[in-house]
Protein: Sugar/nucleoside kinase (Ribokinase family)
Organism: Streptomyces luteogriseus
Amino acid sequence: MSTEIDVLVLGGAGVDTIVHVPELPVPFADSHMVRPGIVTRAGQSGDFVALGTTALGLRTHHLDLLGDDPEGDLVRALHREHGIGLTAVPQPLGTKRAVNLVGPDGRRSSLYDATRAADTDRLPEDTVRALATVSRHAHVVITQPCAHALPALREAGLTISTDLHDWDGSNPYHEPFAHQADLVFLSSAALTDPERTMRRITERGRARVVVATAGADGAYLLADGELTHVPAAAPPAPVVDSNGAGDAFAAAFLHAWLDGTPPRRSALHGTVAGAYACTIPSTRAAAIGPEELRAGVAELERPLPVLPATPSAPPATRPCGG
């Protein structure tokens, strides 16, 4: 089957308002002066995955609900600027939006507007099927309407990936995504036993590859029943914001994995892209390019230098007759 799309991204289109705060959690006060200011820009999880895969040369198309509002205009402009295909289904409730509180160390806390979605939201099945027919792979964001699109994607024969983000391993909302995907990403942040959760995903679902990202500790990869640790990459510049790091990891992993790269080496691509994303201010939307990614992976794979052996100290002597 010929394809026109390498990665079809479903869901996760929206706008974030970035607020830099003096610390997290924010100390209670009547007011705070914040610098470098408050900025609203397009870019939520699906947008960032689509941005990342496009920057790495994958033909990408994004499908989601968008409002006819200023936030939706920002999302449309982001896709036009970066040459990302977009199918926007009208959303009467408006475009998804969130406020991201970003601390001095780059950590963030996100506040999502729950009024921009309804339990009855759906991506039109005929649109999902039409795009799936010409796509090679689907990355499904865990926003509400996307779970209902999973059967159509499966019937179309696509491989599917998803990111469960900071799933605690038990919230039932995430289970349709965890069990229907061939490739599952998640953060280990809320997991007391990451390996147990990763193995449960493979036992109960279709996934044969599960990746749990662990921030500065790298990531854990479960593939073919074997759990391995993947080292973290050194950021190429100071860390300023962790927003979008997991999405960058997923995009770079997909770039390698869809090219036939083994899972562990694909994960090295992910750690390099995730580290790069942490150096991008939260007020911008930018992704690592192919050359920087190749260089970063080569650096991770470079053998450690062999240091000369330290000469052993001479044996201690004792005075005669001691």
The chain has a mean pLDDT of 91. Residues 233 and 272 are 5 Å apart (CA to CA).
